[in-house]
């Protein structure tokens, strides 16, 4: 199974989560920055995981533009899952659900519900245990 974790990250926390998910997925799974990944390379049956920090209640701009550029049907037959990183605020908005919505609009089939990982402050670090949680999520997606 081809599995790719596409991410954008300002301070490195989302990148670390993406790499942990890829480790959990195992095999040839890899984490790739959004600027270096074309969805046209995905074959039906592949797994595409996409993640971003929440910035102003939505995904980062580069990832948002990448999602906007996905044509209808461009992810037909591709399994998809989404995550975000966020701070533990009472009101934090959401990016993962917006990402999953865009992936499904392009034809992706949801492999898991959107999920999220916490950072302690804007620049991080990640809360204790989040990398382990991400790796376990990757193992679950691979299974
Ligand atoms: C301009 C800005 C806006 C942000 N807005 C939110 C927000 O609406 N909700 C939230 O939970 N976190 C927000 N954050 C915190 C980010 O989610 C946090 O910086 C991010 O998870 C770190 O990931 P990164 O290291 O991959 O960039 C914001 C951060 C910045 C810099």
TrEMBL record:
InterPro entries: Flavodoxin/NO_synth, Flavodoxin_CS, Flavoprotein-like_sf. Gene3D superfamilies: 3.40.50.360. Residues 3-142 form the Flavodoxin-like domain. Pfam families: Flavodoxin_1. This is Flavodoxin family protein. It comes from Sinomonas flava.
């Amino acid at each position: 199974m081809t599995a790719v974790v596409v991410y954008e990250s300002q301070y490195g926390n989302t990148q670390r989560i993406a790499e942990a998910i890829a480790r959990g997925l195992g095999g040839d799974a890899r984490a790739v920055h959004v600027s270096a990944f074309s969805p046209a390379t995905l074959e039906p049956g592949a797994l595409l995981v996409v993640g971003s920090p929440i910035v102003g209640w939505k995904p980062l701009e580069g990832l948002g533009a990448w999602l906007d550029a996905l044509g209808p049907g461009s992810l037909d037959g591709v399994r998809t899952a989404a995550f975000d990183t966020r701070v533990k605020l009472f009101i934090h908005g959401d990016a993962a659900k917006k990402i999953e919505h865009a992936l499904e609009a392009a034809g992706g089939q949801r492999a898991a519900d959107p999920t999220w990982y916490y950072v302690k402050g804007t620049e991080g670090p990640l809360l204790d245990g989040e990398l382990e949680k991400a790796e376990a999520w990757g193992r679950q997606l691979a299974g």
